[in-house]
Design a protein that fits this description.
mainly alpha, Fumarate Reductase Cytochrome B subunit, 10 helices, cell membrane, Formate dehydrogenase, Cyt_b561_bac/Ni-Hgenase
């Protein structure tokens, strides 16, 4: 994809980036994921388990927050803006390969990106797949009478190690968000500055 001839938004203007429905989906998903991660830590780290106590309550919170995790995304499908952004996240072009190559080689200068850059697309695909795997393995661990022992043992192994991987990836995701105040403002208010949009997403035309 090559840049269009449209003039970029003035640097002092605000550009609409996310609808209210999209921001609510993100907040609800983040809250449920946060409960999953915190309760998982309380279940697996002995020091936290001793500090928090009430293991049965922590287990219940972990189970239900995990079970409800897909609900915000499913509810968001009622929003046209959300469905459109899912299409953007699933659409790859030559500029995404250029962005990835530049990012991996740490090349200086601007990187071509439409509304979502290649890194955001990879993260969205990975976390969606990981969530489904965690949901499936978690259900096998929860309803122990429905599956053979070998399945439950394998599910526990996958669930535990994937949970650790998710924790690391989420830490990276949060760290990158903390380093970009304008991106966080876009998720909080729905709009970003024209200067930021032109610099970080030069191929995006709202």
């Amino acid at each position: 994809m090559s840049p269009r001839a449209d003039a970029p938004a003035p640097s002092d203007s605000r550009v609409r980036r996310f609808s209210r429905a999209e921001r609510l989906v993100h907040r609800a998903t983040a809250a449920l994921m946060g409960v999953c991660v915190v309760t998982a830590a309380c279940l697996y780290v002995p020091q936290l388990a001793e500090l928090v106590g009430r293991r049965a309550l922590v287990v219940t919170l972990h189970q239900w927050s995990g079970l409800l995790l897909p609900v915000p995304v499913l509810a968001g499908l009622a929003s046209r803006a959300f469905r459109t952004d899912l299409t953007h996240l699933n659409r790859w072009g030559p500029h995404d390969r250029v962005w990835l190559r530049s990012a991996l080689r740490r090349l200086p200068g601007p990187r071509p990106a439409a509304k979502f850059n290649a890194g955001q697309k990879i993260y969205a695909s990975w976390i969606a797949g990981a969530t489904l795997v965690m949901l499936g393995t978690g259900l096998m661990m929860w309803f122990t009478h429905l599956t053979p022992l070998v399945w439950r043992t394998s599910a526990t192994f996958v669930h535990d190690w994937l949970a650790l991987t998710i924790g690391i990836v989420l830490a990276g995701h949060i760290g990158m968000a903390l380093g970009d105040p304008e991106a966080r403002k876009g998720l909080r208010t729905g709009s970003v500055s024209g200067e930021w949009a032109g610099r970080e997403h030069p191929l995006w035309r709202p």
